[in-house]
Amino acid sequence: MVKKVAVIVGSLRKDSWNRKLASVLMQLAPPTISMEFVEIGQLPLYNQDLDNNPPQAWVTFREQMKKFDGVLFATPEYNRSVPAPLKNAIDVGSRPYGQSIWNAKPGAVISASPSAMGGFGANHHLRQCFVFLDIYCMPQPEAYIARVDTLFEADGSVSKPETREFLQKFIDTFAQWVNRKWD
Fold first, then answer.
1. Per the omega criterion (within 30 degrees of 0), is the bond before 96 cis?
2. What is the 8-class DSSP label of residue 43?
3. Up-side HSE of residue 111: CA atoms within 13 Å toward CB?
4. CB 129 within 8 A of CB 93
5. pLDDT averaged over the chain?
6. Fewer Cβ neighbours under 10 Å: the N or C end of the chain?
7. Using 50, 70 and 90 to split pLDDT, how confident is the model at 182?
8. How would DSSP label each residue in 74-121?
């Protein structure tokens, strides 16, 4: 059975490096998983006062996410943490309390940055959230893609063979992670 994986990109930028990276991972994915972008830019900021009458965008996002068996986050790092739209999507999906869409989903994080650290802070901050959210975080391989602004050809392909090999290993391992028996 093919498992469905949501791909959530933390950056809203049209030419986001993380969106490009996620696209490459989707192309490299083995046939045991089917991956689909889930957009988060349309989500109004989470406000607990709206839990009893949530905005339609929240309802749509929550319902959309329920159909996925796993989730892959691709995120840049903003101020040693995740971008605000990504944190908002996590909050919208985790509420109202006791009705989280994230519970018991296998997940993984890949972070990328033009810096030498490859989004290390954002990656680990997101992993920290996974503990409370009950997302089964793939422990290895960890993925911090440094100097991402030097990795892509004009057609969106990865220019460095060693990076492409690493991405293949990452997505193959993630596919195995999602396909584990979690019950």
1. yes
2. P
3. 24
4. no
5. 95
6. C
7. confident
8. EE--BTTB--HHHHHHHHHHH-STT--S-TT-EEEEEEE-SSTTTTHH
DSSP annotation of 158: B
Q: Per DSSP, what are the bridge partners of residue 145?
A: 112
Residue listed under structure tokens 């989730």? 71
118 or 6: which leads in pLDDT: 6
Whether 167 contacts 108, CB under 8 Å: no
pLDDT 10s digits, 27-45:
999 999 999 999 999 999 9
Per-residue pLDDT, averaged over 59-80, amounts to 96
Q: Please state whether beta strands 33-37 and 106-112 pair in parallel, antiparallel, or not at all (unpaired).
A: unpaired
Task: Report how far residue 137's alpha carbon sits from residue 139's, in angstroms, rounded to the nearest whole number.
Answer: 6
Beta bridge partner(s), residue 71: 6, 107
Task: Give the list of residues 6+ apart from residue 168 with CB closer than 8 angstroms, or none.
Answer: 28
Contacts of 108 (CB under 8 A, 6+ apart): 72, 73, 137, 138, 143, 170, 174, 177
Residues contacting 52, CB < 8 A, separation 6+: none
